[in-house]
Amino acid sequence: MGAIQNTQIVLAERPVGDIDLKKTFRTDKTSLSTELGPNEILVKVLFISLDPAMRGWMRDVRSYIRPVRINEVMRSADVAQVIKSNNSDYKVGELVRATAGWQEYAVLQPSDDLVKIKAFPGVSPSTYLGVLGLTGLTAYFGLYEVGEIVKKGGPNCTVVVSGAAGATGSVAAQIAKHVFGCRVIGIAGSQDKCDYLVNELGLDVGLNYKSKTFFKELSAATPKLIDIFFDNTGGDILDGCLRRIAFQGRIIVCGAISTYNSVEPKGPAYYSALITQRARMEGFIVFDYAKQYAKATEDMSNWIKEGKLKSRETVVQGIENAPVALVKLFNGDNTGKMLVKVADEDSKSRL
Amino acid sequence: MGAIQNTQIVLAERPVGDIDLKKTFRTDKTSLSTELGPNEILVKVLFISLDPAMRGWMRDVRSYIRPVRINEVMRSADVAQVIKSNNSDYKVGELVRATAGWQEYAVLQPSDDLVKIKAFPGVSPSTYLGVLGLTGLTAYFGLYEVGEIVKKGGPNCTVVVSGAAGATGSVAAQIAKHVFGCRVIGIAGSQDKCDYLVNELGLDVGLNYKSKTFFKELSAATPKLIDIFFDNTGGDILDGCLRRIAFQGRIIVCGAISTYNSVEPKGPAYYSALITQRARMEGFIVFDYAKQYAKATEDMSNWIKEGKLKSRETVVQGIENAPVALVKLFNGDNTGKMLVKVADEDSKSRL
């Protein structure tokens, strides 16, 4: 059959330090053949998920996933709509989540992490990139599998979350607060975000890490020290929380966004607190818990319905703005999930 | 009754950075009353144990044990001989291990961590400060309780030990090698020590961290990456091992001797490998496993008899040299356990 014009954003060169909007990415206008092989589907991308982990995928180092290649379409999780199908599991008009990358259209196979979205009323499809996507699952498995929240959670348990107004942090903080009843302190980068944490998400305390008295405030907010620290940022915040870590405290190393652009990142100088407090720092990757996604997603859906889990999105319009949106994410300009909206859902074709 | 003259070394002032032999400690000649209260014993100190942890006890910070006070006798574990007793559990001539500190004589109560030593033939009493003391127990519980060696150990398991020629490191390395059959790489600070690790202790590889090509050698020695890292040193060695950590690797944070004298220690810059490799760093304190000491000591005694566990001591003569010996420990001048010999055992009074 024919071909369609496709806008793609590719990795042009690996950044050293900060992303360079003039050099790191390149926008290509290409032609995509709409001929489909066995089991393939053609999709139109609706939303692109922006995640701190992307900075790691751009590095040429051994990691949990291969680096994005130079001149390859930038990798991302997307929500997309099927517009042509050669696979009876995916019908035209249906919504899917997949690793489709920074482009308007894609031909996908089931191996592209293809998951059908069962939308429920009142929930935007973009939620499947946020609370009901890998972002939310990351918060869930970090707390359950690394943070031992089932064992430690409760009113005597102090939980601190960095990047608490972000996509993953806000979910982790709300689960700790509203599902396990912990004392929860959220750390964020502006007074507005701190107000959001306390007034809208119901956390006990919101702390602005840019405050000159931040470390004093952190001490005052953790009189019984920190039992669980869900860390998305690393850097000085991690060191400050190591200084307040409790006996057998657990540090969930989810991310280290403050260091991802650093050529020579600073490590946590105070890590010897792990010895004196018999504490643990442990990292994880959400993919390892794929067999438990269904149960977790059911829990999260219920919590949304019960009002225990709220979410915000920061949406940037237009695929051409994906690079700018990624830079904004590293600047902390977002509250909640950072997304690029690429196209509207075609409602006629949905049924 | 009377009194005896006692040489005591006290903490005169808290060092900032390196220990200052002119200022940090003070030697006092005092008089000790030999009158004993209920359950008390009078002991003559034979050996003093020197341990990296002592640097932490000199700091005025929240830790697992209270700091040594200014003008207080420096804290240490000692092997001592009972010379007068008001406690039927401890007879004159018997040997004990206790927290008796840097002094020639001490009046002790059971609360001073008093443990009777059941010497067996061919084993020096000083062994109860080394392999059969808290030093050896530290190696044992680090591997068993934090390193998950029972689950991970075997010929496909690569274990790296820093400070491997030291008291704790040499025990950890030998247990991993000769009890669990792991591939074991020991890291030490001289070619002599590396030769000792391979030729006498039977490790697979000894690496000198002062070599200009150390990090290349570490990579070459760990083709299957590092499953368990038993870390006594911290610093650049820890970072180098983080760069080689395996999937679900375990870092046993036993000590960080390279940082103990630092005013502003450097943290492990590459700790984000914990995320990508789903790895864990965890600290511990041997005291937490006191209920399991008897079983562990029995295991270790058997391994000594079977030739699986060898040990060396570096012995400095004379209580007045305890401060110098401590500085030597931080300089890495010792192979095996660092001890001060204070007095000979009185063999006549032993039976």
Notes on the structure:
The structure is a homodimer of 351-residue chains. In chain A, strand 12 (245-253), helix 8 (273-276) and strand 13 (280-283) form a beta-alpha-beta unit. The first copy, chain A, is globular and about 65 Å long. In chain A, strands 3, 4, 5, 6, 7, 14 and 15 form a seven-stranded mixed β-sheet that branches. In chain A, strands 10-9-8-11-12-13 form a six-stranded parallel β-sheet, with helices on both faces. Chain A is built from ten helices and 15 strands. The longest helix of chain A is centred in the middle third of the chain and has 13 residues, at 134-146. The first copy, chain A, is of the alpha/beta class and 351 residues long. Chain A has two domains: 3-130 and 311-350, Alpha-Beta Complex (Quinone Oxidoreductase, Chain A, domain 1), CATH 3.90.180.10; 134-287, NAD(P)-binding Rossmann-like Domain (Rossmann fold). The interface between A and B is medium-sized, with 34 and 34 residues. Chains A, B: InterPro entries: ADH-like_C, ADH_N_2, ER, GroES-like_sf, MDR_fam, NAD(P)-bd_dom_sf. Chains A, B: Pfam families: ADH_N_2, ADH_zinc_N. Chains A, B: Residues 17-340 form the Enoyl reductase (ER) domain. Chains A, B: Keywords: Oxidoreductase. Chains A, B: This is Enoyl reductase (ER) domain-containing protein.
Oligomeric assembly? homodimer
Assign the CATH superfamily of the largest domain in chain A: Medium-chain alcohol dehydrogenases, catalytic domain
SSE pattern of chain A: EEEHEEEEHHEHEHEHEHEHEHEHE
Task: Compute the CA-based radius of gyration of chain A.
Answer: 21 Å
Protein name (chains A, B): Enoyl reductase (ER) domain-containing protein
GO molecular function, one term (chains A, B): oxidoreductase activity, acting on the CH-CH group of donors, NAD or NADP as acceptor
Keywords (chains A, B): Oxidoreductase
Domain Enoyl reductase (ER) (chains A, B): 17-340
